[in-house]
């Protein structure tokens, strides 16, 4: 049974093109772009699969990776 892993995706809008750019923070160099959010979601998923399939099983996370966490504060 496959293990599910969670990743953090940072999304920004490119000022020059207006496209959305998504970067998977835990996977160095894993990023993609798309003209709309639904396309970006699909592209990011494909990019993560391609990244993980291209790496050795023991090299799926950077050696210095510790953890990812999210927090919130009232504003």
Assembly status: single chain
| Percentage of residues in strands | 15-25%
Mean pLDDT: 82
Sheet with the most strands, sense and barrel status: 3 strands, antiparallel
* Strand segment tally: 3
Sum up the overall morphology in one term. globular
Strands ordered across the widest β-sheet: 1-2-3
What is the first-to-last residue Cα distance? 42 Å
Summarize the structure in words.
This protein is of the alpha+beta class and 75 residues long. It contains one helix and three strands; from the N terminus they run E-E-E-H. It has a three-stranded antiparallel β-sheet with strand order 1-2-3, covered by helices on one side. Strand 1 and strand 2 form a beta hairpin.
Ordered list of secondary-structure elements with their pairings:
Elements: E1 9-13, E2 20-24, E3 31-34, H1 37-54
Antiparallel strand pairs: 1-2, 2-3
Question: What key phrases describe this protein's structure?
Answer:
75 residues; single chain; alpha+beta; globular; 24% helix; 3-stranded antiparallel beta sheet; 1 helix
Question: Quick gist of this model?
Answer:
This protein is of the alpha+beta class and 75 residues long.
